[in-house]
Every structure is written in C-alpha cells, then in structure tokens.
Design the sequence.
C-alpha cells in the first residue's frame, strides 16, 4: 500500500507540472504574436501607430498605391519608414490602400 501512495503522489505531481507548463507556454506564445502597427500618414511614409491594437481601417482615404496599415512582429523604431524601402517584410498589409487620417 505504501508503494501505491508513492506512485499516486508521483503521478499527481507530474500531472500538475505538465498542466502548469502548458499555461506558461501559451502565455509565451501570446507575447510572440504581438504586432507593431505602422500607418501611411503621407504618400510613401509610414509612422508608428498609436496604441498597440489594430488601427481603424475606416480612417483610410485618398487612394495611393500603398497599403494603409502594415505591421511587423518586431518594433521597427519610431522613425518614419519609407514605403519603397521597408526594413523587413511586413507580416500584415491591409487590403485598403490610402492615407490613414
């Protein structure tokens, strides 16, 4: 009976360890999915969007040949980005083209 208690206790502890590590992994994945959004504020120039959520695409107007909103998995800095020479390939580009106002 004493061995049965040790085995049951070992299984319970290992089950808890696996359960807690599953939640920690999900939390780490959520952080890695963060996006840094940039909006087209003048023809050919993207600036970092305010806040951390997706900018409102209804604010896109004045047809220009570039997507209104783009995002990157890593912060590209606060300096304006040239639409014709982006530092990396965006992981998101809005289908709406135009200036964000």
Sequence:
């Amino acid at each position: 009976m004493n061995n049965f208690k040790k085995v049951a206790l070992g299984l319970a502890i290992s089950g808890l360890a696996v359960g807690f590590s599953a939640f920690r992994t999900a939390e780490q994945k959520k952080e890695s999915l963060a996006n840094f959004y940039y909006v087209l504020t003048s023809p050919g120039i993207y600036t970092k969007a305010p806040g951390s959520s997706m900018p409102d695409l209804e604010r896109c107007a004045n047809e220009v040949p570039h997507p209104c909103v783009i995002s990157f998995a890593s912060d590209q800095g606060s300096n304006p980005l040239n639409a014709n020479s982006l530092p990396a390939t965006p992981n998101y580009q809005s289908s709406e083209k135009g200036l964000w106002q």
